[in-house]
Amino acid sequence: MNARVIDGKAMAAELRTELAALVDDMPVRPGLRVIIVGDNPASRAYVRTKTRNAAEVGMDGSLIEMPVATTTGELLAEIERLNADPATHGILVQLPLPEQIDETVVLDAIDPAKDVDGFHPLNVGRLFSAGREIADDLLVPCTPYGCLHMLKKVLGEDALGGMNAVIVGRSNIVGKPMAALLLSVDCTVTIAHSRTRALPEICREADILVAAVGRAEMVRGEWIKHGATVIDVGINRVSGVYGKSHLVGDVHFASASEVAGAITPVPGGVGPMTVACLLRNTLVAAKALTS
Ligand code: GUN
Is residue 232 among the annotated active site residues? Predict the structure, then answer.
């Protein structure tokens, strides 16, 4: 293996330490409310990490659990309650939602000032109309923000300009906001997806390759340019020998790490940074709402 393995766990711990000091200086305790609807085991594990990490940096984090049969109206009523609650500075509705719930209506109902996911159309619009500076008070989607943080740490803030960045995946949660963030640091950005032709060739042009397609180990070492920085956003559970399952990314780690210059592992790469960036957003929201 040649590639440097990017330690997302350590970078996230460092960011949390910085945030804990800032939370300590706040006149109020930032309040984060995480809503989960239903009992998807992976989602339940993610939300527990979010509220636990919030508590670890001194925030008031709590989980609101709603049954799988919850209606759009019932979820909207809960969001209205939290929008009006002065002790709530951040609201996150864990996705995906059960299919009877209208996700767009739900995300639009969250007060944009408390939208710590950065998914409300107002915050999406602000991100896409930002220029070369992402303002300190902007609520930016957590996963791509964490990816950008890691890229700056690994490559250096000033080195990103002019680099070819290829994002595989066009989701609202990762692919599209990742493109906006990479543009803001002067990368040349390509968003590839399931209908893209000659995907391996396009990936081989990338100095920075972000894989966010949700397909286990799809991106192979042969798709990667020598020395490229690879950010693997995928978290896929696959079954192994003796019926035991384990997590893999969207990148085939063994072959990719022979070619890449640096690569994030799964787990321990993007995941911890996503949660740290959620805490950053909660602090930003709390500051704006209490100033
Ligand atoms: N599901 C997967 N990633 C995310 C995320 O960043 N935010 C929310 N709310 N749900 C998710």
Answer: no
